HAD-IIA family hydrolase (Isoptericola luteus), 337 residues
Amino acid sequence: MSATLRGSDVPLVAAHDLALVDLDGVAYRGHQPIAHAASSLGAAREAGMRLLFVTNNASREPEDVADQLSGLDIPASPDEVMTAAQACAALLRTRLDPGAKVLVVGGAGLVTAVRAEGFEVVASADDRPDAVAQGYAADLAWPDLAEAAYAVAGGAWHVASNLDLSLPTERGFAPGNGALVGAVTAATGITPDSAGKPSPTMYRMAVDRAGATRPLVVGDRLDTDLAGARAGGYPGLHVLTGVSSARDAVLAGPGLRPDFVGEDLRAILEPHPLPVATEDGWWRCRDRAARVTTEGLEVDGRGPAGIDVVRAACAAAWAAADEGRPLDASTVPELTA
């Protein structure tokens, strides 16, 4: 399977009726705003695009998320927030009947979501739960992970809200839910099911909730946001304000590749030129170019890289890889949009 960039002659806001927007690394970073996020999302709303914030964070209530967004000048209501906790609880319903016992290892958002689906929340493996729902919470400790391991080893179905190994904070990257889930997996030898990205479950739920016909996924992580978009068949915009860099995009395999790449959320408001291959082996995007040679990735040498160089480099690298000429990662520099 191959995948390459798409072009759009009109701004993405005009081509799509719903933006499924990730939070950390896209709308904000930790508790800090990201430049151009509030103004761009506000302009998208004014242009008629609906917004739904889709996050792998399962620790918080939708009301808390909406309040944080609103405090950063991104007005949002709780029904415009879709959390991994809600997706996790919905996944439990595919196998368990209402009234089943679920050991919740996570934050208040996960407890609320599990109860909302009609399950009985229990606190111990001694309660013989039918499932363990595990999500991130900053105050999780060894006793919580041990209780989950006891229950899973005893036959409980292990469902993780997401498998993100790290999460961005204002101080850098910290262990995410996937790292904590890994401790339980290491202790039990049992691999959990997961409802969060890169599973497309949340995207499908969000699209159904909004009744959208032309959704666009917007994220910063290739291995979750954009992989989920690919898995669900939704076009994805990779913004370079969070975890995955422009270099990561250039080196991405087919299942992780975005359809569009932008410096930040202003990319929603802009057309996206399509890189074009030329007879001399270059891929050109407007007046910038890149190609793959036997020596590795080569970009034109005029000034700072810029987003069009990133687009051209993605097109060149992906085409070479799909032709059986994988790019030596050591030849790919950091590309600053």
